[in-house]
Amino acid sequence: ITIDVNPESAAVAKEMISFAGLEDRIIQFISDSAEAIPQLKTKFNVETFDMVFIDHFKDAYIRDIKLLETNNLIRKGTVVVADNIIYPGAPDYAEYVRTCGKY
Which residues of the chain have pLDDT under 50? Predict the structure, then answer.
């Protein structure tokens, strides 16, 4: 599942997914992540994720990791990768994952 708030970016991603021949394996959800994450279990029958890659607005990283936790979409063993937390930076996210005791 890929979540993208920007329809133009989603269109490019759709072309890349098609080029890779993965249309039957990747679901695109065009929505703000704050609205999408709470719907993932019911809309797409997701139990938990094995891996999450976060790469969007840096100020939303902490909101989204907490939404993933609250909605029980990540579990012990889930790999979470967050891009560009140093530069341009997501210091609140970095501080949270370093100090919350869950990671």
Answer: none
